[in-house]
Amino acid sequence: xxxxxxxxxxxxxxxxxxxxxxxxxxxxxxxxxxxxxxxxxxxxxxxxxxxxxxxxxxxxxxxxxxxxxxxxxxxxxxxxxxxxxxxxxxxxxxxxxxxxxxxxxxxxxxxxxxxxxxxxxxxxxxxxxxxxx
Length: 133
Hints:
This protein has helices at about 10-25, 40-45, 70-80, 100-105, 115-120, 120-130; strands at about 1-5, 30-35, 55-60, 90-95, 110. With about 130 residues, it is α/β, with parallel strands linked by helices. It has six helices and five strands.
């Protein structure tokens, strides 16, 4: 079974991920876990060390505890430090002006939220690439 973690502080975006993944993965067994902060997401990841996620989707702009860094960037940086999950595919889905720069800096994929609203097919492509399906 494919395990996916989606992290965003806005319920509407968590619902968006759920609906899109239901459509994209309709013939695949998967579970989607959602978290509303980088802090809770990282704790969740650590609690699932023996059964890691196959994909992590995260926003950048969430709780402010990590300024000047975005909370999502803090999450990505800490994931990349963990040997057992450092190669887990990560997709940033954010409206942040520096999403591309941050994604390139951490060698992860990204989709800007404005682009996603106009081109949801891009989401499907990124998800399928990340999961190799």
